[in-house]
Write a structure and sequence with these properties.
heterodimer; A: 394 residues; mainly beta; Methylamine Dehydrogenase, Chain H; Thrombin, subunit H; four-stranded antiparallel sheet; B: 116 residues; mainly alpha; Cytochrome Bc1 Complex, Chain D, domain 2; 4 helices; globular
Chain lengths: 394, 116
């Protein structure tokens, strides 16, 4: 009897627990809480939708539709990693709730746009516009316009900088502007002129100190030290390609805040099938690595040990991996036609790749280069993980 | 302006292309196979679109919709496509495209982004 008493008691208490729990379960219509730290959004450029992906599951968990023209779209995240602000090419600025998987607000703020940024305090959203040329700034909660900064030029390379500032470049005028919102909604504008002919993109280092503009019309790049008052433009890599050596550029490279590999910047050359290695302090060229084609993205793994590179049309089916120590290509593979974007898991273990014309995202182990999975997506381009919320310049 | 239309070739191509083109109302210009036309349209939208926008309304590069190209002729546009515009980011596409390809693209743009 004694032997049976325990199991019977356990059995009974199990049912008692069930009976007690049942009303609580039935009365709750809340799903279990869901964290967003391992989520991401993939831009589906042709269909104007976002695929919601889960890094841990290596799977799509939903789709948000109705975002307009998302060709070349990008997005930034709110500090709580719940909301994304999506910058469409058609001038649409859309705030989406990644947990509820729906659009919260959407405004058409210009006619033709390229990229945006979120202020360091998460309160302001800035959008870079081709038409009308300039930057418009919006309240992150309401998307009400806070400021309009017409430039009379196409603006590119818009990033956030510490101290509630935004930095951007003027394609048509060879200038970099710094808009400082630290004193309130009316920005203090600092204009840095003579930075070089036709800046096509810009990046800011993860510490928020150095802004680098790539220049289409020059054989150099220009850096600004944002700790200087005012910053003086500093050309570097002078004559990295004589004009007559340049090859046709079928797609402008991107500069992103992933360019720092250890103590070196790794930068895509314009008109050369090379990436350039530059010492981050002296801005002197250290080395070059010949590549498969004109690089579009050269992005360092978060630990800086590897750099993954994709290429412009017509060589955009291939990805190369360069070792930062030897500066040699250590791996090359062909995910398929039109590799448009790559995104590392925040600690670098995986890389996700969008292969537009195969309609899929592929996931690779960055240590073994083994393919870990793939996810169907409609003409995928940019991949954005929520961990970007905590990175200056992303 | 649309010369070079071998009618038998046109008919054959149109018949082959019919299932793919249901609803698009397009026709085929002589010299460009339907499969090639699909590739060229993708190239215009995706690769020209890098600078000119997927809807062709412009980006870093200018607006190349039919309204913006009004008054330009097909041969002139095909020349720009093949040889680029020196001093600007418009690259020469001759290494990647034939003259027939370039003429097809020029006509495609003049027709407002509809397959001929």
């Amino acid at each position: 009897m004694n032997l049976l008493a325990k199991p019977i008691a356990a059995f009974l208490s199990f049912f008692l627990a069930l009976a007690l729990a049942a009303p609580a379960l039935a009365g709750s219509d809340c799903p279990p809480p869901r964290a967003s730290g391992d989520l991401g959004l993939v831009v589906e450029r042709a269909s104007g939708s976002l695929l919601v992906v889960d890094r841990s599951e290596r799977a799509a968990i939903g789709r948000i539709t109705g975002l307009g023209d998302l060709s070349h779209a990008s997005l930034v995240y709110s500090p709580d990693e719940r909301f994304a602000y999506v910058f469409g090419r058609d001038g649409g600025l859309t705030k989406v709730d990644i947990l509820a998987q729906k659009i919260v607000r959407r405004v058409m703020q210009a006619g033709n746009s390229i990229g945006g940024a979120i202020s360091d305090d998460g309160r302001l959203i800035a959008v870079s516009n081709y038409e009308p040329g300039g930057v418009r700034v919006f309240d992150a909660d309401t998307l009400a316009q806070v400021a309009d900064i017409p430039t009379g030029a196409k603006t590119v390379g818009l990033v956030d900088a510490p101290g509630r500032r935004f930095v951007f470049s003027l394609w048509d005028r060879g200038e970099i502007w710094i808009a400082d919102f630290s004193a309130g909604p009316a920005p203090k504008i600092t204009k840095i002129t003579g930075i070089g002919d036709r800046p096509y993109d810009g990046l800011i280092t993860p510490d928020g100190r150095t802004y680098i503009a790539g220049l289409f019309g020059e054989d150099h790049l220009t850096a600004l030290d944002l700790w200087q008052e005012p910053p003086a433009p500093r050309p570097f890599l002078p004559g990295y390609a004589a004009h007559d050596e340049k090859l046709p550029v079928y797609k402008m490279p991107h500069l992103e805040g992933w360019a720092l590999a250890g103590d070196l910047f790794v930068l895509p050359a314009v008109g050369l099938h090379e990436v350039l290695w530059v010492d981050r302090r002296s801005l002197q060229e250290v080395a070059r690595t010949p590549t498969h084609g004109q690089p579009v993205f050269a992005i360092a793994r978060p630990d800086g040990r590897q750099v993954w590179v994709n290429f412009a049309h017509p060589l955009n089916d291939t990805v190369q991996v360069i070792d930062t120590v030897t500066k040699k290509v250590i791996h090359q593979f062909r995910p398929g036609p039109a590799v448009l974007h790559m995104e590392f898991a925040p600690r670098g273990a995986e890389l996700w790749i969008s292969v537009r014309d195969e309609n899929r995202v592929e996931i690779y182990d960055t240590h073994t280069f083994e393919k870990l999975g793939e996810i169907a997506a409609e003409s995928p381009s940019g991949i954005f993980f929520t961990a970007r919320a905590h990175r200056t310049g992303l | 302006m649309r010369e070079m239309r071998g009618i038998p070739a046109l008919l054959g191509a149109a018949l082959l292309a019919l299932p793919a083109m249901a609803g698009s109302g397009g026709e085929i210009t002589g010299g460009i196979a339907p499969g090639r036309a699909v590739e060229l349209e993708r190239l215009v939208r995706q690769d020209c679109g890098s600078c000119h926008g997927m809807t062709l309304k412009g980006g870093l590069g200018p607006d190349i919709r039919a309204s913006a190209l009004a008054g330009q002729d097909r041969e002139g546009l095909a020349g720009i496509i093949l040889d680029g515009v020196p001093g600007t980011p418009m690259p020469p596409w001759r290494p990647l495209l034939s003259e027939e390809d370039a003429r097809w693209i020029a006509q495609y743009l003049l027709d407002g982004g509809k397959r001929q």
